[in-house]
Write the structure tokens for this entry.
Amino acid sequence: MRPQAPARSRAASTVATVASVRQVTPRMTQVRLAGESLVGLAAVPGQTLKIYVPDLISGRLVSRDYTVRDYDPAAPRLDIDFVLHGPGPAAIWARRVRPGEPLEFVGSSGRYRPDPHVDWHLFAGDETALPAIQAYAAMLPADACAQLYLEVADAAEQQPIPTAAHPSVCWLHRGDREPGASTVLEDALRAVRLPPGQGRIWIAGHTPTVRRIRAHLITERGIDRRALYARGFWDRSIARSVAPGG
Ligand SMILES: Cc1cc2nc3c(=O)[nH]c(=O)nc-3n(C[C@H](O)[C@H](O)[C@H](O)COP(=O)(O)OP(=O)(O)OC[C@H]3O[C@@H](n4cnc5c(N)ncnc54)[C@H](O)[C@@H]3O)c2cc1C
């Protein structure tokens, strides 16, 4: 099914054109958007877009949150990396989309930036968080002290982390375990040695996993809540419904 341009526009939404589709890894596809509608967009890599994709079951558009992987206002172009996890509307759209097709989105939004004044940074997440972590890593100065804990299926899902800094990068393979069913990320963070000084921790991914790690860091490690950004990005126990107004 070829997605139709939305019949009615939402407040402050943008409709851009898919310029290219690139298979980054076996489970990750990068969709590059282009077109005049991207001119002047106040987008920053790492921010969130609400995209609208067709739900093949209901025939309606549904909204999903995705990260601005990269944005070049001069081109203009905007990249979004999609995990090809299965039968969700967004994953299906990303698997099938071809250059020339439209994508409507709202945003971007989000104020998180790596704090340049702290002694250390820790970023952790599964592959849905990888585009944001790549974006934040690229913002780190060369002398930043940073640790990255990244859960992916296997070595084929590992990606470059372009950054001026020299972070320690720990790839965690969940192997045959289903996404969201592995404890590799939680186990790694329970074992992590945090550097001395003031730091910032950013964690995102499977919601129950993120909640457990957050609780551990606050209650068992005594991490100040203000030093911790933790956000659930998806939940394997939740069957999604059609967005209101979609
Ligand atoms: C702020 C924010 C930023 C995000 N950025 C990105 C991003 O840049 N790239 C990206 O790929 N995702 C990102 N996500 C996660 C993405 O929004 C969810 O994975 C979303 O559920 C995918 O929508 P869908 O229509 O494909 O599947 P849904 O209809 O939402 O879900 C269908 C089924 O698939 C399961 N499911 C959903 N996601 C996954 C997954 N990753 N692995 C395994 N099973 C899954 C659900 O539990 C459900 O059972 C982000 C989420 C948030 C909140």
Remarks:
- The chain has two domains: 13-109, 120-234.
